[in-house]
Amino acid sequence: MTPSDVKATLSFSDGSPSMDLPIYKGSIGPDVIDIRKLYGQTGKFTYDPGFLSTASCNSTITYIDGDKGELLYRGYPIEQLAVHADFLETCHLLLYGDLPDAQQKKDFTARVTNHTMVNEQMQFFLRGFRRDAHPMAVMTGLVGALSAFYHDSTDINNPQHREIAAIRLIAKMPTLVAMAYKYSAGQPYMYPKNKLSYAGNFMHMMFATPCEDYEVNPVIERALDRIFILHADHEQNASTSTVRLCGSSGTNPFAAIAAGVACLWGPAHGGANEACLNMLGDIQKMGGVEKIGDFIKQVKDKNSNVKLMGFGHRVYKNYDPRAKLMRETCHEVLGALGLENDPLFKLAMSLEKIALEDDYFVSRKLYPNVDFYSGIVQRAIGIPVSLFTAIFALARTVGWIAQLNEMIGDPEYKIGRPRQLFVGSTPREVKPLAQR
Ligand SMILES: CC(C)(COP(=O)(O)OP(=O)(O)OC[C@H]1O[C@@H](n2cnc3c(N)ncnc32)[C@H](O)[C@@H]1OP(=O)(O)O)[C@@H](O)C(=O)NCCC(=O)NCCS
C-alpha cells in the first residue's frame, strides 16, 4: 500500500487528545484512512453498518467506479473483455493476474477440462434432496459437500491445495448446476463432454438427453459465455465479503465458497434476476404493459415495500456497464431465437423505458442493473427461473476464489472480526423463575 503525504487528524470536542491517522493511496479510486490503531489509542470504534465507507481489504483484482459506471478486471475494461476474451481467459486473468497467451490458455483449459466430472458418489448425495428443492438450497449443500469428496485440497494455508481447489471448483460448478437441474426435471444426468467449450459443455449437460444428438447453438453459447464473464467478479460485494470472512477463519475453500453461494441467494444480491423475472410475471398477470403505471405507483409508495427489481445498485449510481452488454446480448439472443415479440420481453422493454424517464428513478440514480436483462436472456435460452442464481454462482465462483486466495496470500490478513456499538441492557441480576 502506498502511504500518502497527507494525514487525517481526528479531534474530539470534549478535549480528549487528537490522533493522526495515516492515509494510503490506491492506484485508482478513493484513498483510505487507516484506523487500525484507533481503538488502541482512543478506546473508540468506528460505526459503519452496511460498510458504506469502509474498505475491508486492499485488492488488485477488480475495480469499480460506480459514478462513472466503470468495471475493470485486473485493469481491463469489462466492455473489452466481453468482446475480446472468453470466460476461461477471464478466469485465468482473475486468478493469476493477467490474460493467458495461446500456450497458457491451452494449458489452463486442459487443466480445467480435466476436472469437469464429479465423484460418482455425488449423485447419491444429490438424491437426498427433494426434487422440488430450490436449486440454491441444493447448490449450497453440494458445494459444501465437495470438501467431503476432495479431502486432498482442503488446507487453505497450502498454496497447492488452494490451486487445485480453485481448478476443481471452476471445473465442477457447471456439472453441479446441471446435475441439480436434471435432478429437478427427473432426467438422467449428462456427463461432461470435454471437446466442447466451457459454456457449450454446460449447455450440453443442461439440455442434452441420452436419446438424441445435441447441437450447441453458437449464439446461445456466446451469450452464456458473456453472462459468465460479466458475473465473474465484482470486488467486495456481500457474497465475496462473506467468502473472505468465512475463509479468514482458516476453513477449507469449498466451505468458504458454499458460504458465498448461500449469501448470493438473497434477493438483494444474486437472487435479483429471479426476483426480476417473477416481478415481470406478476405485472403480466395484473394485465401487462397497460398496468405498468399502477405498478410504478406501488414502487414509489414507501409503505408498499415493492421495489422495481433489477433496478438500482449499491455501487453503480450510473448505468451498470454490465447491463449495457447484457442488454445487447438480450437483443441478440431473442433475435436469434425469434422471440422479439415475447410478451415478457416487450413488458421489460416498456418498463425500462418508463423507469429511465421517471423522475423518481432519475433523481435517485436508479438504472437497470445486469440482472434486469440477464434473467430475460436466461429465460429465452430455456433456463428455468429458479436456476438463475445458480448460474450466477457458477460464474462468480472464480471471483470468490481469486479473492479468497488473495486474502490468504496477504501478510496482513487476520481473521475477520467486526466490533459493535452495544445498546442493550446494562448488567442485571437473573431472578429465579418463581420471582420473574
Ligand atoms: C441494490 C439495492 C439493494 C441497493 O440499495 P442501496 O444502495 O442501499 O440504495 P438505497 O436502498 O439507499 O436506495 C436509495 C433510494 O432509492 C430507492 N430505491 C433503491 N432501489 C430501488 C428499487 N429497485 N425500486 C424502487 N426504489 C428503489 C430507495 O427506496 C431509496 O429511496 P429514498 O431515498 O426515498 O429512501 C437496491 O437498489 C435494490 O433493492 N434493488 C432491487 C434489487 C436488485 O435489483 N438487486 C440487484 C443488485 S445487482
Automatic annotation (TrEMBL):
Involved pathway(s): Carbohydrate metabolism; tricarboxylic acid cycle; isocitrate from oxaloacetate: step 1/2
Membrane-spanning intervals of the chain: none
GO MF annotations, alphabetized: citrate synthase activity
Keywords: Transferase, Tricarboxylic acid cycle
Domain of life: Bacteria
UniProt xrefs under Pfam families: Citrate_synt
Record-annotated active site: H313, D371
GO biological process per UniProt: tricarboxylic acid cycle
Tagged with keyword Transferase: yes
One cellular component (GO) term of this entry: cytoplasm
Family: Belongs to the citrate synthase family.
Name recorded for this polypeptide: Citrate synthase
Gene: gltA
